[in-house]
Amino acid sequence: MEILELTALELGKKIKAGEITVKEAVQAAIDRAKEAEPVINSYVTLDEDGALAQAEEIQKKIDAGELTGPLAGVPVAVKDNMCIRGQLTTCSSKILSNFKPTYTAEAVENLKNAGAVIIGKTNMDEFAMGSTTETSWYGPTKNPHNTAHVPGGSSGGSCAAVAAGECFGALGSDTGGSIRQPSSFCGVVGLKPTYGTVSRYGLIAYGSSLDQIGPVAKDVSDCAAFLEAIASHDPKDSTSIDRDDYDFTSALENNAKGLKIGIPKDYMGDGLDPEVRQAVLRAAKVLEENGAVVETFDLGLVKYAIPAYYTIASAEASSNLERFDGVKYGYRTEEYEGLHNMYKKTRSEGFGPEVKRRIMLGSFVLSSGYYDAYYLKALRTKALIKKEFDKAFEYYDIILGPAAPTTAPELGKSLNDPLKMYLGDIYTISVNLAGLPGMTVPVGKDKNGLPIGMQLIGNAFEEKTLIRAAYTYECATGKQYETMADISRASAGGISDGGMGAADAAMDKEVR
Fold first, then answer.
1. Which of 227, 333, 399, 502 sits 20 to 30 Å CA-CA off 263?
2. What does the DSSP assignment read for 388-421?
3. Angstrom distances, CA of residue 264 to CA of 192, 269, 294, 296, 430
4. pLDDT of residue 478
5. DSSP 8-class letter at 91
6. Contacts of 136 (CB under 8 A, 6+ apart)
7. One-letter-per-residue 3-state SS of 113-144
8. Predicted model pTM
9. How far apart are CA 107 and CA 201, in angstroms?
10. What is the 3-state secondary structure (H, E, C) of 37-76?
């Protein structure tokens, strides 16, 4: 088996056994990235020299028995809104196009401590504001399964890099679905942990009460291993939580017996593509056949999630992005008259249209006379949505549904209608509003060969329940990720709808 065909954990074992060197693994990933990048555009920065230097150091530590973890020597990528000391960190924005931080994000430090090799920084929607990775100043990323389509966003670069075999895992950030939705579009596994599980120190903020770093990987086992590596309590982050248990790989158990799974009727109605619906219901049926109890129920207030999210996220963005003014770091306009003119021209030239749109919306809802009418009302709605989830988790261990209403749209078809793009987040944003963990697992393809993802939502701190269910599904159906060779051979054949009668019947069950 070629190096790039391996999962991260398989590669780690072979490196530890001496069958593959760290340098060989890193060089294979870099060579693949160089081959794919002219088309896919997953990376903002590919650090070949730095990665090979890391490989040499890590190999010495592995040989000396100092690094024994499962990810030692594994090449990974990091979304370009996480600081790495001395390395370009741009948030895919012109305004930070020359910014090199003086410190490293805690999650990245944790990856390095686990022995992973950081080979580059991945492309993203500018300041994580978008759902397609088309708002990047460095140009759009393309979906490896079909380069005429988007990879999703805002962590589209990380998900596309994993799907294209340009790394063995990656870090993304999730403010309203930015790990889960592109994971669905790219056919990889992505996990947004409970808010506070992974330190946000060194993550350039978009919406501070919503942002969370999480892993993107080829399969569920890799995803659990990456989460175990990056999760920690960090006193430098005031929202970081000191959890009792960080042993996420212990949840890799092929057993769904006793799990109660609820499917919200609101998630399976109008606006959901029929092929996505069928694939998600088939996945639910697989879990039912492996011992889970599957029922439908009403999850109220879903229709209020989008306005509440965009009000809160835009308000926090307008506050967080005030610091980018051309004074101390980042881009500064070349010609200006006076300080205020410098601020205005720098920000006008440095920010893209979507970022400006959200800054203006946020400034509006925080302004005098509108604060109570919009921002405070959104905060109250956020609290009500959390109560609805609390009520649901009194009955269910997991909430199951789609990660996105459709498969990946074509490039250039979303940015013309921002409201339509915002509505594409309908299934993911409520998870961030409630601070819950969510996980996307590949469950098939549509008639055009584009991946479909199932979203699993758990109660706070119940990542292990999600991992257990996802791993059970994966074991029952075979690994869903594909190598680049598989992708290139893939036909545009339709998905069989065998077994749909039973899956549809599951949807008609009454709530207990």
1. 227
2. HHHHHTTT-SEEEEESSSSSPPBTTSSTT-HHHH
3. 20, 9, 11, 6, 13
4. 85
5. T
6. 44, 92, 123, 124, 125, 126, 157
7. HCCCEEEEEECCCHHHCCCCCCCCCCCCCCEC
8. 0.94
9. 8
10. HHHHCCEEEECHHHHHHHHHHHHHHHHCCCCCCCCCCCEE
- Tokens matching residue 94: 């012109």
H-run or E-run covering 457: strand 451-458
- What are 275's two structure tokens? 């092929």
List b or e across 403-437, with b for residues whose CB sees 16 or more CB atoms inside 10 angstroms.
bbbbbbbebeebbeebeebbebbbbbbbbbbbbbb
List the structure tokens of 305.
């999630």
Which tokens belong to 160?
């596309």
Q: Any idea of the CA torsion for 190, 194, 197, 203, to the nearest 10 degrees?
A: 60
Q: Which two tokens stand for residue 228?
A: 């175990």
The answer to whether the beta carbons of residues 189 and 473 sit under 8 Å apart is no
pLDDT below 70 — which residues of the chain?
1, 419-420, 479-512
**Tens-digit pLDDT profile for residues 306-333:** 999 999 999 999 999 999 999 999 999 9
3 state DSSP class of 311: helix
First to last CA, the chain: 48
Residue 41 has which token pair?
């555009």
In the prediction, which pLDDT does 486 show?
A: 65
Helix or strand (DSSP H, E) at 77: strand 75-79
Rounded Cα gap, residues 112 and 115, in angstroms: 5
What are residue 118's DSSP bridge partners? 76
Q: Which helix (H) or strand (E) holds 186?
A: helix 180-186
Strand partners, 77: 120, 170
Nearby residues of 350 by Cβ (< 8 Å), 6 or more positions away: 93, 94, 95, 324, 326, 330, 331, 333
Q: Which letter, b or e, does each residue of 223-233 get, where b requires 16 or more Cβ atoms within 10 Å of its Cβ?
A: bbbbbbbbbbe
The catalytic residues are: 79, 154, 178
Say how far apart CA 37 and CA 425 lie, in whole Å: 27
Q: Give the single-character DSSP code of 27.
A: H
User: Considering only CA atoms, which of 320, 319, 311, 309 is closest in space to residue 435?
Assistant: 309
